[in-house]
User: Which sequence fits this backbone?
């Protein structure tokens, strides 16, 4: 039921472990495959390994910032690591990152020789400004993709950045250059926080933001690409459970990748997402992922297509959460007040903006047409 054809590869399910330290050596990759990953993307392999800075990963309970976006092993070391990774059955996608098309082609050729089933070019890296700029230029992405595609036989995926001004144009360039698919999104340039007592930023330099807070951005990027370019998309960003995976699939993704959830909860988090997704698909009697792919995308409208429909908020008789006045505070139109009978919505003032229906913890408010 969950079998997925992605880039011509036969995945046993559409849930892939994303590129990161959790996939930075053969043993880690093998263990993720054993847990049931549809595929694993290696941490990005680079040609000039620099000394890695420490500390390099921070977390504030919501999202994570990291300033480590490549693997610190020399390319030759990956021959042995790929042997270990491939000691179990499964698909390994090699992530490669470099500044020039020829360097990327060199790394991709090596990783293909070591057994990679596909290549993912990481053109977007918020800690390397030159790469981040490159990710916004369709011509540069075209050149890179073309060079790699003409040097390897395996499918080539290009990982895009949400920071690109026109992500559709970049995805189109990948397609024109012969790329088999795109993945979106990589982490987003960030500073997690500043200690106001010491004036110290959380980490010493800009990093990549990941985890739940970037999910809405990832969803929008995937939907935009799926609406405008005919190319398989792998959805990434803030997937913490099977519902999040389904959101990406319903917005047009053919497969998804999970990173921060594995980093925070361990490889078992990936296994849980796969198990829960399987159970959901079975419960709904869904025979193939294709049945749900793009379901939400079809319902997306442009602003021009949206009808102006008069709506107002209506209160149900369910009891309020104790001491709550969230709906009163959030209504910018002062339509909600507390009376002796309870919460009252003034229909004359209510504009139907909808916010109170999301804010109410007791789900007492709904919109009526
Ligand atoms: C610590 C860390 C290291 C990462 N390293 C890489 C990398 O080497 N190459 C790459 O393309 N993406 C890298 N990423 C980005 C992830 O693959 C993924 O695109 C991003 O974290 C968003 O997904 P998530 O919210 O599920 O983590 C890294 C992310 C984290 C948190
Ligand atoms: S729908 Fe908007 S305007 Fe109407 S009561 Fe709720 S918050 Fe106020
Ligand atoms: S937000 Fe909901 S629970 Fe809270 S006061 Fe308003 S209606 Fe009651």
Assistant:
């Amino acid at each position: 039921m969950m079998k997925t054809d992605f880039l011509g590869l036969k995945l046993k399910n559409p849930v892939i472990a994303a590129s990161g330290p959790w996939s930075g050596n053969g043993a880690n990759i093998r263990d993720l495959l054993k847990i049931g990953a549809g595929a694993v993307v290696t941490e990005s392999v680079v040609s000039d390994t620099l000394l890695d800075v420490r500390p390099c990963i921070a977390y504030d309970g919501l999202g994570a910032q990291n300033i480590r976006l490549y693997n610190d092993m020399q390319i030759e070391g990956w021959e042995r690591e790929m042997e270990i990774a491939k000691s179990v059955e499964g698909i390994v996608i090699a992530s490669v990152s470099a500044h020039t098309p020829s360097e990327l082609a060199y790394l991709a050729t090596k990783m293909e020789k070591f057994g990679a089933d596909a290549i993912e070019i990481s053109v977007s890296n918020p800690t390397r400004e030159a790469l981040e700029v490159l990710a916004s230029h369709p011509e540069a992405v075209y050149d890179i993709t073309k060079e790699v595609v003409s040097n390897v036989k395996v499918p080539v995926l290009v990982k895009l950045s949400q920071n690109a001004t026109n992500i559709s144009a970049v995805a189109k360039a990948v397609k024109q250059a012969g790329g088999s698919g795109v993945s979106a999104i990589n982490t987003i340039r960030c500073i997690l926080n500043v200690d106001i007592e010491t004036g110290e930023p959380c980490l010493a330099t800009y990093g990549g933001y990941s985890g739940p807070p970037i999910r809405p951005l990832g969803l929008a990027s995937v939907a935009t690409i799926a609406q405008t370019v005919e190319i398989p998309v792998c959805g990434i960003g803030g997937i913490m459970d099977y519902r999040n995976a389904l959101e990406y699939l319903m917005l047009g993704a053919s497969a998804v990748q999970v990173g921060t959830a594995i980093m925070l909860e361990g490889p078992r988090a990936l296994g849980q997402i796969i198990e829960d997704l399987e159970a959901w698909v079975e419960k709904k009697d869904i025979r193939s992922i294709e049945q749900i792919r793009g379901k939400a995308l079809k319902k997306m409208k442009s602003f021009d297509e949206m009808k102006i429909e008069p709506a107002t908020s209506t209160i149900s008789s369910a009891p309020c959460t104790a001491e709550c006045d969230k709906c009163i505070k959030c209504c910018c139109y002062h339509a909600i007040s507390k009376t002796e009978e309870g919460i009252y919505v003034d229909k004359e003032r209510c504009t139907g903006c909808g916010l109170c229906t999301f804010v109410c913890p007791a789900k007492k408010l709904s919109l009526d047409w």
Remarks:
- The CA atoms of residues 337 and 344 lie 5 Å apart.
- The domain at 307-368 is CATH 3.30.70.20 (Alpha-Beta Plaits).
